[in-house]
Specification:
Two copies of one chain form a homodimer. Chain A is α/β, with parallel strands linked by helices. The first copy, chain A, folds into two domains: 2-111, Tetrapyrrole methylase, N-terminal domain (Cobalt-precorrin-4 Transmethylase, domain 1, 3-Layer(aba) Sandwich); 114-282, Methyltransferase, Cobalt-precorrin-4 Transmethylase, Domain 2 (2-Layer Sandwich), CATH 3.30.950. Helices cover 34% and strands 18% of the residues of chain A. In chain A, the strands form three sheets. In chain A, strands 3-2-4-1-5 form a five-stranded parallel beta sheet, sandwiched between helices. In chain A, strand 6, helix 7 (145-155) and strand 7 (159-163) form a beta-alpha-beta unit. The interface between A and B is large, with 61 and 61 residues. Chains A, B: Pathway: Protein modification; peptidyl-diphthamide biosynthesis.
Chain lengths: 287, 287
């Protein structure tokens, strides 16, 4: 049996009791480690599980999935995924391959940022589609997120923005010299995301994510160091220190709000006067 | 400390290792038991935890929350919530009360139907706002869901529909006789939901949820008995037996689809010829 097991969001103890039982008895244990990361190292998982964990990078999952699935018709193979196995990144391709090979499979769900963002106090019913934000470079500044964001904004819905992470990215400079060297991991911050949003708004000018819009910066959701910071995008552009270490996500607020959401968020406002003023002007009573 | 702990979706082993450690050491353990249920009885939780669990019904949470919070500044109180503590039903009001009393609080996330529905193979990025469907009665047929559904449909987004459950509902007939008797629990089925959707479409006629629309029926998501059934709403209206026991949810498909979604869903089609025909006509290449 192939088991896709969600690990939750923070550390080795966020696995479910059911998931842990499978990890302990499986023949092989893989960890998908290129689309999301836990806040702890692989070694901490291994010592908690009492066994070896094989890192499955993008290349292995995309090109060598049959190695992962080898003998899974006769023995148990665990494929660990940070968050939920079908959360922000789905592993439907691996399951389709298992189906084609007649390998039985099942999944053990866990917390995903898509639902755990509810800890911000924002009601999940009021969220529209989720979008992701990639790191802009000098030559690549994809603004396709803007159209989807605009759809949510026009309906007054909140938008969860998932921020880019770069792990095991080959250095282009080293490649030019014929070598494969990996760049150190990079995690987009709320401030970087806010700056990219404001920048694209300045080009497009449709009033979607200008600097006076309210947003929630979320850091280390699901961990004991979870933190929410609330402000205008302009304020969040500067909030490097307030947010602390990765991982970060951002929610752009829609105007279809509830008073309970305001009461919940206000506690975390970078500046309560600014929050009150902007809320009253642009959000209150609009739902 | 007040701990809001997600229990996940199916049984006693879906709690996280971290959550279980807190349950074992807390002074008191409450189970919120009116907005969602596990697929197992309270006694099974109690025997797994090795301790008593206090049922917190709506009345207790809404009117006697200070009893739940008593002494939580000095000792640990666990408040268990099926799914994620801030999932489909949020408990922000309990947290706001804790804040007002200066009681420290934290939450332990877990799987919510809002993310676990990804096991259907539908990409969570392609979902719009979540809606809920209540049981219609002869005199109360709220169709406000239709406007929100229409918003998602116009954007081509999938819609997760959460289905009504009725637990501990007083019998109106008995109340008329001056007695309080509770009705047996009721759980809306996919077929009932599909019938209500088609019925409202017949009134409103905006092409939002007519009987030729494709939808996914989901049963017992997150459990070993998880099942997905795919068909038109017309087909799902009749799919009582195929779905099996509760809990059910439904996803109305949007046209913004991916070929991988089709490949994944087709396996579960009630009739693959009908699925292929409707997909080709109304969904394929529309994204």
């Amino acid at each position: 049996m192939l088991y896709l097991i969600g690990l939750g969001l923070a550390d080795e103890k966020d696995i479910t009791v059911k998931g842990l039982e499978i990890v302990k008895r499986a023949s092989r244990v893989y960890l998908e480690a290129y689309t999301a990361i836990l806040l702890v190292e692989k070694s901490q998982l291994e010592s908690f599980y009492g066994r070896e964990v094989i890192i499955a990078d993008r290349e292995m999952v995309e090109s060598a999935s049959d190695d992962i699935l080898a003998n899974a018709d006769k023995e148990d193979v665990a494929f660990l995924v940070v968050g939920d196995p079908f959360g922000a990144t789905t592993h439907t391709d691996l399951v389709l391959r298992a189906r084609a090979l007649s390998i039985p499979h099942t999944s053990i769900p866990n917390a995903s940022i898509i639902s755990a963002i509810g800890a911000s106090g924002l009601q999940l019913y009021n969220f529209g589609q989720t979008i992701s934000m990639v790191f802009f470079t000098d030559s690549w500044r994809p603004s396709s997120f803007y159209a989807r964001l605009a759809e949510n904004v026009s309906l007054g819905l909140h938008t969860l923005v998932l921020l880019d992470i770069k792990v095991k990215e080959p250095s282009l400079e080293a490649m030019a010299r014929g070598k494969i060297v990996y760049e150190p991991p990079r995690f987009m911050t709320v401030a970087e995301c806010a700056r990219q949003m404001v920048e694209v708004e300045e080009e497009k000018k449709e009033g979607v994510c200008g600097e006076k819009k309210l947003a929630v910066g979320a850091a280390r959701v699901g961990s004991a160091e979870q933190k929410f910071v609330v402000g205008t995008l302009e304020q969040l552009c500067e909030a490097e220190e307030e947010m602390g270490p990765p991982l970060h996500s951002l929610v752009l607020l829609g105007w279809r709000t509830h008073d309970l959401e305001r009461d919940y968020l206000r506690e975390w406002a970078l500046d309560k006067d600014v929050f009150d003023e902007v809320w009253k002007r642009d959000y209150e009573g609009k739902g």
